[in-house]
Amino acid sequence: MRIIKLTEEERNNILENLLKRSPNQYSKFETTVNDILANVKANKDKALFEYTEQFDKVKITKDTIKVTKEEIEEAYTKVDEHLIEIIRKALVNIREYHQKQVRYSWFDSKPDGTLLGQKITALERVGVYVPGGKAVYPSSVLMNIVPAKVAGVSKIIMTTPPGQDGKVYPVTLVAANEAGVDEIYKVGGAQAIGALAFGTESIKKVDKIVGPGNIFVALAKKAVYGHVSIDSIAGPSEILVLADETANPRYVAADLLSQAEHDEMASAILVTTSEELAKKVSDEVDGFVKELSRKDIIQKSLDSYGYILVADNMDDAIETANEIASEHLEIVTKNPFDTMTKIKNAGAIFLGEYSSEPLGDYFAGPNHVLPTNGTAKFFSPLSVDDFIKKSSIISYSREALELVHNDIEDFAKSEKLTAHANSIAVRFEK
User: What share of the chain is helix, strand, coil (3-state, %, to 5)?
Assistant: First the structure.
């Protein structure tokens, strides 16, 4: 990996390079995506069937688009029992973590006759998109369905592209069933997002769409925002390791590569105060890349978006971590908890040399759907909060309103909204 002396100029250059990976940079695909969405909105199932045949090479009909109970039962026979047990163990951790996020309605009444509060209501219908194609990610199935289930969503609908045999990957079906999905449909791509956003004869419109996908899925989610809510527009995966001279270079190298293998646009960055560690990590990376199965993808990722940055001091290193605002941040320093208190921007923070990033991806419990491309400065991980909505509650007695009605009327008149003022005034006419 390239080793660079950290300066303000280098940091700005790296930030600019990383932002090139944002889905917002791929406007050339927007026309195609918008055409697909318009077709699905107008022609519904017919458009879904045509696109599935065109893109996935599978013919589906109104009778085969929905995954049946029998298909789910068949999937269980094709998935290793040990893997099913691992999925169930992970589910316990994920569910327990998200149950701690649950919010409740509250009301605050006062002796003067006022009552204020907040009513929490779960969303009615949520769509979960699950990628197909070359990759199978049952962990993402769990991470998207469980918080919705814990929040109390009434109906969770999953869409995922079928394989050329017309079926969904068995492990995807098992994970979805274990997590508590209600319906599964064999459709992917921008057309699936259109179906969830607008509704078709087979797939009923949802209130929110969550889940990762390729650039067409990301742009489709962006386009339908407003018709429905979405979780985020996710970019390529990324990791930043913040380390000092106490870090194990072999561990650090392995962790950097755990994200670089996702795709050629993934980012892996080490920021360290130790030149010696930088050189050792670079050597370890070179050794690992030769052995790993996805070495071509890893090497392209490292060549384009991989960096080892050597900072003069830990304050500069921390400032850089906060500016990059990485999806995953590992802190491997002498006192990682102390370092963590100075971190403002990160999707998920992993503390210490035995808290490597894949722990969060699969098993620990916190959600692995995280903000990317610097959006950790203002976005949060997927959580139960993403599947609820809040209503304000206001109740005043006549006596309570009488104490403040003149103030409200004067405020309304200052904005020249006399009907607002009148709405209050009529209640106190002589």
Answer: 50, 15, 35
List residues bridging with 351 in a β-sheet: 331
**What pTM was computed for the model?**
0.92
For 236, phi then psi, to 5°, come to -60, 155
Q: Radius of gyration of the chain from Cα atoms?
A: 25
Kindly report the number of other CB atoms within 10 A of residue 187's CB atom: 31
Q: Is 111 exposed, middle or buried (0-12, 13-18, 19+ CB in 10 A)?
A: exposed
Q: In which element (H, E) is residue 247 found? A: none
Angstrom distance (rounded) from CA 244 to CA 91: 34
Q: How far apart are CA 22 and CA 45, in angstroms?
A: 31
Burial class (CB in 10 A: 0-12, 13-18, 19+), 405: middle
Please, which pLDDT band fits residue 27 given cuts at 50, 70 and 90?
confident
- State both tokens at 169: 């990957």
Environment class of residue 290 by beta-carbon count within 10 Å: exposed (0-12), middle (13-18) or buried (19+)? exposed
**CA-to-CA distance for 426 and 430, rounded, in angstroms?**
9
202, 224 Cβ separation under 8 angstroms: no
Give dist(CA 330, CA 270) in Å, integer.
Answer: 9
Tokens of 417: 């909204």
Rounded Cα–Cα distance for residues 143 and 137 (Å): 10
Tracing tokens 């990160």 back to the chain, one arrives at 346
> For residues 317 and 315, what is the distance between their CA atoms, to the nearest angstrom?
5
What amino acid is encoded at 6 in this protein?
L
Per the listing, tokens 């814990």 go with 150
| C-alpha span between 428 and 186 (Å, rounded) | 61
Could you give the residue numbers annotated as active site? 327-328
At 387, list the tokens.
Answer: 């599947």
171 has a pLDDT exceeding 80: yes
**For the chain, how far is it from start to end, CA to CA, in angstroms?**
82
